[in-house]
Amino acid sequence: MNNDKKIKVGFDIGDLNGVGGELILKALEDILMVDFCTPVIFANKRLMSFLKKQLGIKIHFHAISKAEEAMEGKINIVNVWKERVEIDFGQASDGPHAKMAFDAAFNALKDKHIDVLILAPHGNYEQENDAQQLLPEKTLVLKLNEELRIANFRSRPLDPEKKLDRKAFTAELELLTQSLLQSFRVTRPRIAVLKPCWQTENDAQKATAELNAHIQELNDNNLLIYGLYDRTRFFETHNDQHFDALIDFDIAKAEACYKGWSSLPMVNYFTGPIGVVLNSDQGVNYATAGKNTMDPHNFRQAIYSGIDLFKCREEYKEISANPLKKYVLKSKKERG
Questions:
Q1: Are 214 and 321 within one domain?
Q2: Do 69 and 206 sit in the same domain of this protein?
Q3: Whole-angstrom Cα distance, residue 299 to residue 24?
Q4: What is the pLDDT of residue 288?
Q5: Helix 297-320, helix 166-184: angle, nearest 10
Q6: What does each C-alpha distance from 227 to 78, 131, 150, 159, 199 come to in angstroms?
């Protein structure tokens, strides 16, 4: 990894009528931001200049036609479209320009013209992990902060009539363990599984037995995965401190329990082969759009997390690029 080269952080504008532009501008208002990363906004300079004036933010932009032209020390804007766009704050839109900005940003990430992608809120994808719909299938949502990592597994449907998809569970677990290794340097993770909430005792007994049986199989295969844990009790007793990651099938409830005793903000990390993609999980907030009331702290935290994650992934690539060949010592009998 070239430590002299600043990490390029791309920003998708999200719904133009929402709070995405406000969050981006407020996060980048800190002059120190361009000292440790190169911001690249995928939108339109005319639009961002309008928002800047509306918010009373004094920063300067560097307009470019593609991400490869981004300059260090500047707040770069890729002009994804040229025509004038009318903004109607608070009116749900998420129209073609939001999709154009996302596509341009995502393609730049795939082509390695940016290193990190921060997603602004989209109107159709404002709930916790629905932004995952914008990304490829092999993507796992990981809610994280300095204290906690919660993985959202979808292999155990919340409908009690449906069964655990063991193949899908194994695939999700592989994504999680790979992410913990590559992005957090955890070589042999301890993972806790939180118990889903079921409507009836009969549903709970059947589903719990099914999950427990599969967890036992994984333990027999030398994986450090434990459960099932009652969600509320788990956080009340600070049991999360003993694990590298948690698995939950209803991540919104897990986050609600966690927020009951901690004020640290969480961000969504969409981990997988696509690269480093995050959002701040703040929602599109149509009611406050254009009113200059959004706090950029969570959004800025997503930027910091993205930079740290990218550095970890690059370091992992370097140290695993040329592994030593395995050498098996033969016995005297085999050597003749």
A1: no
A2: no
A3: 8
A4: 84
A5: 90
A6: 47, 28, 14, 20, 20
Q: Residues 90, 216: one domain?
A: no
Q: Are residues 176 and 47 in the same domain?
A: no
In this structure, the answer to whether residues 10 and 120 fall within a common structural domain is yes
Cβ distance 164 to 193 under 8 Å? no
CB atoms within 10 A of CB 197: 13
Contact call for residues 27 and 300 (beta carbons, < 8 A): yes
The residue out of 239, 264, 289 marking a domain boundary is 264
pLDDT (mean) for 68-96: 87
Q: Which two tokens stand for residue 306?
A: 């993205």
Check which CATH number belongs to the domain holding 10 and give it.
Answer: 3.40.50
Q: Among the three residues 264, 292, 327, which one is the final residue of a domain in this structure?
A: 264
Identify the pLDDT of residue 127: 40
pLDDT more than 90, % of the chain: 37
327's tokens: 């050498």
Contact 120, 23 (CB under 8 A): yes
Check whether 199 has a pLDDT greater than 60: no
Q: Identify whether residues 179 and 136 lie together within a single domain.
A: no
Q: What is d(CA 334, CA 336) in angstroms, rounded to the nearest whole number?
A: 5
Verify that 199 and 275 share a domain, yes or no. no
State the burial class of residue 226 (Cβ atoms within 10 Å of its Cβ: 0-12, 13-18, 19+): middle
Domain with 201 in it: 146-264
Quote the Cα angle for 27-57-277, to 5°. 25
What is the count of structural domains for the chain?
2
CA-to-CA distance for 120 and 137, rounded, in angstroms? 20
Distance from C-alpha of 77 to C-alpha of 101, rounded to nearest angstrom: 11
| pLDDT tens figures, 262-302 | 777 888 998 877 789 998 877 777 888 888 888 899 999 99
Q: What is the three-state SS of 212-242?
A: HHHHHHHHHCCCCEEEEECHHHHHHCCHHHH
Is cis: bond before 228, omega within 30 of 0? Answer: yes
